[in-house]
Design brief:
about 100 residues
Length: about 100
């Protein structure tokens, strides 16, 4: 098992964070098996693309809400980590009030 659960959509309210706002959240390590995905599909070409993070944030975006960690952005990074047999991912974790 790679993730805690595979979801389909955001169960939490909109946090209204911009790219700049996400950049101010310090990254930390998160275990892959604690993450709930919000996407249930993936583009294989993006997974295999070495430059897929060239224009984006180097860190995944995770929303902590109601005692769950939701992987909002970074599914491809997380899967790459799993394929490399790593159990953790560096992510920016935003804590959203319930």
């Amino acid at each position: 098992m790679i993730f805690k659960r595979v979801g389909d959509g955001k169960p939490y309210p909109d946090h209204e964070l911009t790219s700049r706002s996400w950049a101010s959240v310090p990254p930390r390590q998160v275990r892959l098996d604690e993450l709930v995905t919000i996407k249930d599909t993936l583009q294989l070409a993006t997974l295999l693309d070495e430059d897929s993070t060239f224009y984006g944030d180097l860190f995944a975006h995770v929303v902590a809400w109601r005692d769950e960690l939701y992987l909002e952005d970074g599914l491809h990074r997380a899967l790459r980590a799993a394929l490399q047999q790593r159990h953790v991912l560096h992510a920016r974790v935003h804590h959203l009030e319930a």
